[in-house]
Amino acid sequence: MKIGADVLRRYIQLPETLPELRDLLDDVGVEVKRVEPSDYGPILSVELLANRGDHYCYEGIAREIAGRTGDGVILPPVASVETGESPYSVEIQTELCSLFSFTMLERTSEQSLSRDEALPLQCAGLGSVLPAVDATNLASIELGQPTHAFDADKLKGPVRVRLSRAGESAWPLFTEGPVPIEEGLMVIADDEKILAIAGVIGCEESKTTEETTRILLEAAAFDPVAVRKASRKMGIHTDASARFERGSDFSRVLVGAGRVVHLLERAGWERRGPTGMFGDWNDPNRIIALDVVAAAAFLEHPLTEAEARDRLVRYGFAVSPAWPDWQTSEGWAAPPSATKTSKDRLRHTLLVRVPPARLWDVEFQADLVEDLAKSIGYNDSPTRLPPVEMGEVPSHREAVRARAEEVLLGNGFYEVITNGFHGRDLRDKLEVHPGHSLYEHVETANALERAYSLLKNSPVGQAVEAVAANQRRQQQEVRAYEWTRVFLPDADARNGLCRERHVLWAIASGHDADPTWAKSRRPADAHFFAGLVAELGAELKLPLTLSTTSVDAQFDGLLHPGRRADIVLDRRVVGAIGEIHPGVRKRFKLGKTRPVYLEIDEDALQHAPEDVPYVEPSVHHDIVRNLAFTLPSGVFSDEVGAVLAGSAPSWFQGATVVDLYAHTEAGVAVQTLTYELRFAPGPDGRTAEEVNATCEHLVRVVGQRLGDRGVQLRG
Amino acid sequence: MSRPDVDAILSAFDAALAEASTPDDVQEVRRLHTGKKSAVKAALKGLRDVPPDERPQVAQAINEARRVMEERVATALTEAQAAALAAELDAEWQDLTLPGVSATRGARHPVTLVERQCMEVLRRLGFTLVDGPEVEDPFYNFDALNIPEHHPARDMQDTFWLPNNLLLRSHTTTVQARVLERSSELPIRIASSGRVYRNEAVDATHLAMFHQLEGLWIDRGLTFAHLKGVLAFIARELYGKDRRIRFKPKFYPYTEPSIGVDLACVHCDGAGCEACHQAGWVTILGAGMVHPKVFTQFGFDPSEVSGIAFGLGTTRMAAQWAGVTKVNTIYEPDLRVVRRLHRGAK
Which pLDDT belongs to residue B268? Predict the structure, then answer.
């Protein structure tokens, strides 16, 4: 909302300088977003609190300031409006309209509003249209009561406030032509047409024009939710709807009409008869008991009953002491909350009657305390920390994350954050078809953009897309990770829709390290990620292993079938590593780039760490022997390793692959792996013959177990 | 009988030493001229052939020559070693202005860094981090938080709706609602952080997904002054004790009173400049005392307990801290951007 500083000064005393005024407005919750100079003085763009419909006018802002400063509010002149026989027939057919008034005015001469009177319009950026229109706009801006002027000679038959019917259309102002209107919206209509979407906007066919000589001035009180629904359904948001949606002051209907009448009577219009008033609304006389002692304790401000009363009266509340008698001369009744309090408390209890303008936002003692706090000043009341016994430490989950990150960060990975959803195009690109475990997604029902259509059920697509996006920017070296969650459709889930799975994923392309002028690097391949899994296991003290025996079906078609492995923890598959499938690479236009992917269940990483006992190293050196075996494609190194470990004596310490030589033998691709075997020396030493005999035994066993699959000792 | 020619021995030694340039050369001169088979040793052995009355003088001359030789060898050795070391050091010169070659470390995302820093501050006040679902029931996202259907506040948070009348949470306050539902023991001090969703068209300043962090403190006797104290503590710990802050009234449906915390603009310190749109202040925190309706919703008696609730826009904070004006940049998967956010433009 735009307001003129000079206009606001008409309502209440303000600080002299603009910075002081701005500070004051910010201080009372009328936040100044921008100040612009203009021919009408400084124009302030203010952001209003969403629950304060009463702020949507000069009077409301002035009252808010008055609550803080204690200065009086000066209101613009309003004509006294007498009710009587209506100048026009009106029927209220819906309870959503509480009050409806019609005042007939007739033009007797052609005059404009004065410059001073029109100033609020100019400050609000509204051009002058016609006096009748300008006057209604002014009443809304000044006093917060939207009104509307119908051309009385364009109405046919009685005016009805009713709900729209199926198949009806309306022609709202500022639209090209009639538009269909949904059934059930509150409208004002005559026998032939809809005259206005109640509380939202008038319609073209009954609007006031230069030819108009008689107007019917409508001022009404509508249900906020009904106005809001109509505004949203029609996609039309006006100053009037903004005001009504937040709740208007039902007691000010005739005041608003009176302001319009006052302005128009000065512009050559005359009233014709009394104002017709329809509907029935009575002030509910909401009384709230305010425990001043409790309020003072809460605000840590030495608040007395007198001070509380004074401050609340500034905001328009009526205040009465609860003691000695519940029944005051005005007949106030105590609210139930007050009747429970002790007599002693009653001496410090005030009964506070909520003014109609505040019925929408003041319901509890807490609401009154908020006004007291604003009146004292949010920056002028005490500030202090509550007592704190002891701080907290990071949870196990946070600690595990931090330690896992150390492994990734140390290997040059950067954390990225991706969306929780993606478009159908990403699923298509992955070629995940019906029947694939990742085909089903949770779908959003009302996404504004196609990119928000599906909640992601796997990070793979976004991870590959990240590599592709970087490649498009000539960025081949990618090492990225994310802690994310995926949404797995599951009708048996607690919410009947999906489970949320927390996942750590990482992707790399290019090399395992950044380029330098000296250092040689390896390609970032699946072996690199196998090392990461081992390091994660070591850091988190979890026995993470890789297995190729049972592959997780969710990665079928996504990871290279010959370059993938499951991550296993306690015989349970908790993730996978692997090179991105060539088909996926092609569809993402990755060319020769071969990204490698890791995904692991975060809950698995939260597993209790394994106890790794300390074993004193021997004072003697281990005995080391190297054995090289040639393995055809399809035989895995850990199969040979398992045979060695399973067949060796107890003093065998372990076998590690220390060299790999990929070559062909008789035209067949094979790999020769050199295993470094370590043996404990034993307390009395161990002879070379003993160790050599053991190695020969191991070679024989490997031959027996794996020889038929082509494994042989490399000579 | 001949006397040893000490001068000649010394001259030969000096000539040899003059030729020696390396420590090994000097050691060789020492071996040849003062060792077992040296002329000076031979001279000492020949003393028995010198007449007894001359023997002391001759012996003294030989010993003096030997002492001089040892002394000169020692000096020459020191010099040769120093020269050798200097030559070695010269030869081992490296250009250390070349870029370092250690493995380059990666970095956490700016939003994560902000979250962790916030949690460090909050832990000092006894807060623990709790998690909640992103797919939510409207009850936890709206109704339990005093945002009934058709409330204008629902407009403020355009929602992604899902099947089964579920939604993607539009704020992390949902976690507060869930904690209140399952907790009864006081005090409650929890923080929640994570992704939230708004059904908005994405542009430089609007995102369909971003991050928030919220805190909730429920106990007996918490006051408005405590609320302000907690907020001031957080603001000052995160932004520095010298930065000015101010409080202002706000509206949030789930708090009453509601309050906002502004920080003096880092560029103009409150005077107003382009960076802060002439406002002089930047809002960093939204907060308030837990609304009585929220308490009663979960079985707490608002006359017995009170609560402090606050929220931080961690995405916006990360953008501010990184100096990024287009907040959507923060979520770019472009690693050039990610690196620059962490390491600058180098």
Answer: 81
Domain boundaries, chain A: 2-69, 90-279, 288-376, 396-605, 623-713
| Rounded distance between C-alpha atoms, residue A670 and residue A634, angstroms | 9
CATH level 2 (architecture), domain B110-343: 2-Layer Sandwich (3.30)
C-alpha A602 chain-centroid distance: 24
Residues 6 or more apart in contact with residue A255 via CB below 8 angstroms: A78, A143, A145
- Residue A310 tokens, joined: 């004074």
Structure tokens at B341: 């956010």
CATH of domain A623-713: 3.30.70.380
Question: In tens digits, what is the pLDDT along chain B, a chain of 346 residues?
Answer: 467 888 999 999 999 999 999 999 999 999 999 999 999 999 999 888 888 898 999 999 999 999 999 999 999 999 999 999 999 999 999 888 888 888 889 999 999 999 999 999 999 999 999 999 999 999 999 999 998 877 766 665 588 999 999 999 999 999 999 999 998 899 999 999 999 999 888 777 788 999 999 999 999 999 999 999 999 999 999 999 888 999 999 999 999 999 999 998 877 877 777 777 777 888 889 999 999 999 999 999 998 999 999 999 999 889 888 888 888 888 988 888 888 888 877 6
| Residue A340 pLDDT exceeds 70 | no
A225/B contact by beta carbon, under 8 A: yes
Q: Tell if the CB–CB gap between A300 and B224 is shorter than 8 Å.
A: yes
In A312-420, at which residue ranges do the beta strands (DSSP E only) sit?
318-321, 349-353, 414-415
Q: Cβ separation of B230 and A393 shorter than 8 Å?
A: no
Q: Are A97 and A159 in contact (CB under 8 A)?
A: no
Cβ contacts below 8 Å, chain A against chain B, sum to: 263
Please name the residues between 266 and 305 in chain A that touch chain B, using a CB distance below 8 Å: 297-300
Write the CATH number of the domain with boundaries A2-69: 3.30.56.10
The domain over range A288-376 is classified in CATH as 3.30.56.10 = yes
User: Cα(A72)–Cα(A58) distance, rounded to whole angstroms?
Assistant: 14
Which chain A residue has the Cα nearest residue B258? A370
The CATH homologous superfamily for domain A396-605 is Bira Bifunctional Protein; Domain 2 (3.30.930.10)
Structure-block tokens of residue B125: 């006040």
> B203 and chain A: CB distance < 8 Å anywhere?
no
Identical fold, A90-279 and A288-376: no
Q: Flag whether residue B133 sits within 8 Å of chain A, measured between CB atoms.
A: yes
Rounded to an integer, the average pLDDT of A503-517 is 93
User: Which has more pLDDT, A122 or A389?
Assistant: A122
Residue to test with chain A: of B104, B134, B283, most A Cβ within 10 A: B104
DSSP-H helix ranges across B183-288: 224-239
Q: Is there a contact between A287 and A351 (Cβ–Cβ < 8 Å)?
A: yes
The CB-based long-range contact list for B122-125 (8 Å cut-off, 24+ gap) reads: B122/B191, B122/B215, B122/B234, B123/A391, B123/A392, B123/A393, B123/A394, B124/A388, B124/A391, B124/B237, B125/A385, B125/A388, B125/A391, B125/B189, B125/B217, B125/B230, B125/B233
What is the ipTM, given to two decimal places? 0.88
Half-sphere exposure of B110 (CA within 13 A, CB side): 29
Instruction: Please report how many Cα atoms fall inside a 13 Å half-sphere around the Cα of residue B286, on the Cβ side.
Output: 18
Whether residue B163 lies within 8 A of chain A, CB to CB, comes out as yes
**Domain boundaries along the sequence of chain B:** 6-91, 110-343
Residues of A in contact with B131 (CB under 8 A): 397
pLDDT value for A329: 47
- Chain B 169-198, CB below 8 Å of chain A: which residues? 189, 195, 197
Name the CATH topology of A90-279: Phenylalanyl-tRNA Synthetase; Chain B, domain 3 (3.50.40)
Omega before A382 within 30 of 0, i.e. cis: no
The helix (H) or strand (E) run that includes residue A215 is strand A214-222
